[in-house]
Amino acid sequence: MAKFITFEGVDGAGKSTHVATVAQFLRERGKTVITTREPGGTVLGEKLRELLLHEPMHLETEALLMFASRREHIAQVIAPALARGDWVISDRFTDASFAYQGGGRHLSLDKLRVLEQWVHADLQPDLTLLFDVPLDVARQRLDQTRSLDKFEKEKEDFFTAVRDVYLQRAAQFPERIRVIDSTQPLDAVSRQLEQLIADLCA
Ligand code: TYD
Question: Does a cis peptide bond (omega within 30 degrees of 0) precede residue 39?
Fold first, then answer.
């Protein structure tokens, strides 16, 4: 059966580097795979992404727009792909809303749970890869040569809270969320991912 895999981690943890690697492992196993991202993944979602990453807004507006983008993404991309039997890899999903809006911005987790229930009561990722590094490493890895978006410009305590919520969720959902030590060399991370994908396909 087709599966839904999400990638998570603080900015600079290195998750995006591995999206193509995991897609390739799956294709080698004969799976049809689509890769997508949040916020975004649809024409409307990419417009919302522009606003979310660059416009100042109330924290609840931010959470609502994240879930609006997600609603569209599920309806147009994720659900149809899974129904066709395609595997879906999304660079971020709802764990990011708990970590960034809940942890970073201190929005009530109960409100986020209401939105989660509203938008995808019967859909959860089959596997979430949480790329984890200490904050100083994440900050160093952010490409300082390009202009940083609204989130990347946040201060250290914001990212400390984001990482804490991610790790709390990993402890809460150990079957679904796998923590990847992203301080390891790239090839060691790749080998670990290959094993996880082999297990998922078994
Ligand atoms: P990111 O995935 O890091 O993209 P890039 O690698 O191109 O910088 O950027 C998305 C940003 O959006 C990231 O800082 C986290 C934030 N975000 C939230 O705050 N809440 C969410 O629900 C999602 C999906 C993302």
Answer: yes
Check: CB of residue 2 under 8 Å from CB of residue 85.
yes
The tens digit of pLDDT for each residue in 145-200 reads 788 999 999 999 999 999 999 999 999 999 999 999 999 999 999 999 999 999 99
CA torsion 120→105→11→164, rounded to 10°?
-90
Calpha distance 66→63 (Å, rounded):
5
Q: Which of 100, 97, 103, 91 is nearest to 131 (CA)?
A: 91
Indicate the pTM of the whole model: 0.97
Q: Which ligand 1 atom lies nearest to the CA of residue 91?
A: 2
Tens digits of residue pLDDT in 45-92? 999 999 999 999 999 999 999 999 999 999 999 999 999 999 999 999
* C-alpha span between 154 and 148 (Å, rounded): 10
Kindly list the protein residues whose Cβ atom lies closer than 6 A to any atom of ligand 1: 11, 16, 38-39, 66, 91-92, 96-97, 100-101, 151
